[in-house]
Amino acid sequence: IERHEPEVFSRIATVFGSYDYINWRLTGERAVEQNWALEAGFVDVSTHRIDDDLVALAHIPRSAVPRKIASHEILGSVSAKTADETGLMAGTPVVGGAADMIASALGAGVAKTGDVLLKFGGSVDILIATDQIKPDPRMYLDYHLVPGLFMPNGCMSTGGSGLNWFVRNFAGGEMAAAQAEGISVHQRLDALAAERPAGADGLIILPYFLGEKTPIHDPAARGVIYGLTLSHDIGHVWRALLEAYAFAIAHHVEVLNDMGHRTERYLASDGGSSSKVWMQIVADVLQKPVQRLTGHPGSCIGAAWTAAIGVGLTDDWSGVSGFVSFADRLDPDLRKADIYRDGYRRYRDLYARLSAHGATRAGSSS
Questions:
Q1: Residue 159 in 3-state DSSP?
Q2: Superfamily (CATH) of domain 6-95
Q3: What one-character DSSP code corresponds to residue 89?
Q4: Per-residue DSSP letters for 203-234?
Q5: Do domains 6-95 and 100-366 have the same CATH topology?
Q6: Amino acid 298: pLDDT
Q7: Who's near 279: CB < 8 A, 6+ residues apart?
Q8: What pLDDT does residue 358 have?
Q9: What 3-state DSSP class applies to 312?
Q10: CA distance 117 to 103
Q11: Which pLDDT score, from 0 to 100, does residue 366 have?
Q12: How far is Cα 310 from Cα 28, in angstroms, rounded to an integer?
């Protein structure tokens, strides 16, 4: 904006996040929630305060960045004007709020150091609870909703969206067969993948269909299907896709461990976790048990519990675990450890070699 619309930039009065804006409209009070301030680069992590020099790097007046508040902190109450406009009760307290994935992690019971949430939605999120703050450019960093804890996290550009893209474009025959069998196309493809061997007979996929966010931060990266032969079929490709996202999770875990974080317990939530085949592959690649959640309400329960803490209905952050329901736990198949250790090495090596020659870039003729 400063470069292309300097007149607009010069009139900036307040800089804050989307839910901070909603809170301002509700209460008339300006504040910036702690994680928006942190992700914007305004917070000195050694003091946990908004730093004037960091704000100045963005050429933003310090007066434009309001006070930082915790997610559970009350910043005001619903104004009479807003009550008339919305039907909300005037005087209702409003707390800072939180990003959806952070609230979702709390709602999944990720509240102890070493707890990891694997969130299988349109993209795949990896979030860990820790009492150590260790900034690293490979991962995002947020405050945990529980005071004193932090939440390093990663987010892939795709996940379920990549699987659905494959279904739409290449699985027409399986869609028809699944309909005839009275099952979903994903269930049919999972069944085919389960019949194929671990490692998909040498097929490796880089799932960078929209570039990639963490941990490689490469928007120009592109998806790759490597090792395809006439002996491979759709079951092999589907299995290789599931394995690709499992390898990407393993990459995040490797980075977290390299940062000094212990990954102790893995919880899986959201739509993709309903695939037992996929979750078993993840367990086999990580060689760690993966606990599936059932009926997980996503960020809703985490947000509600944060509000309850804020207004004094409870002071027990661990109480949210009472709303967590577990499905089955997928234990790793030790017999597949060597296969997936080699597959992960090949997965990492493939991107390194191709990116060195620009071969994963859009429009590359390499």
A1: coil
A2: ATPase, nucleotide binding domain (3.30.420.40)
A3: P
A4: -EEE--BTBB-TTT-BTT---EEES--TT--H
A5: yes
A6: 79
A7: 268, 273, 290, 292, 330
A8: 74
A9: coil
A10: 11
A11: 38
A12: 19
Low-confidence ranges of the chain (pLDDT < 70): 359-366
Give, in words, the CATH class of 100-366: alpha beta
Domain spans, the chain: 6-95, 100-366
For 329, the token pair is: 């736990």
**What is the reported pLDDT for 357?**
80
Pairing state between β 150-155 and 140-143: antiparallel
Q: What are phi and psi of 304, to 5 degrees?
A: -65, -40
What does pTM read for this prediction?
0.94
**130, 150 contact by CB (below 8 A):** yes
At 360 the pLDDT is 63
Say which residues have a Cβ less than 8 Å from residue 253's Cβ, sequence separation at least 6: 116, 126, 263, 286
Q: How far apart are CA 104 and CA 203, in angstroms?
A: 34
Contact 270, 295 (CB under 8 A): no
How, if at all, do strands 115-120 and 93-95 pair?
unpaired
The CA distances from residue 223 to 19, 25, 190, 207, 353, in Å, are 34, 42, 21, 5, 14
Query: How far lies 49's CA from each of 184, 307, 335, in Å?
Result: 50, 23, 50
Distance CA 164, CA 167 (A): 5
Q: Hey, which bits of the chain come out as E strands?
A: 32-33, 43-44, 49-50, 68-69, 74-77, 93-95, 115-120, 124-128, 140-143, 150-155, 204-206, 224-226, 265-269, 290-293, 326-330
Phi, psi of 40 (to 5 degrees): -75, -10
Copy the structure tokens of residue 39.
């992700």
Instruction: Give dist(CA 223, CA 159) in Å, integer.
Output: 12
Specify the pairing of strand 74-77 against strand 93-95. antiparallel
Q: 264 in helix, strand or coil?
A: coil
Let me know: does 48 contact 98? Beta carbons within 8 Å.
no
Alpha-carbon dihedral 144, 147, 150, 155, rounded to 10 degrees? 10
What CA–CA distances, in Å, run from 263 to 198, 267, 269, 291, 329? 24, 11, 17, 14, 17
Residue whose C-alpha is closest to residue 34's, from 149, 114, 126: 149
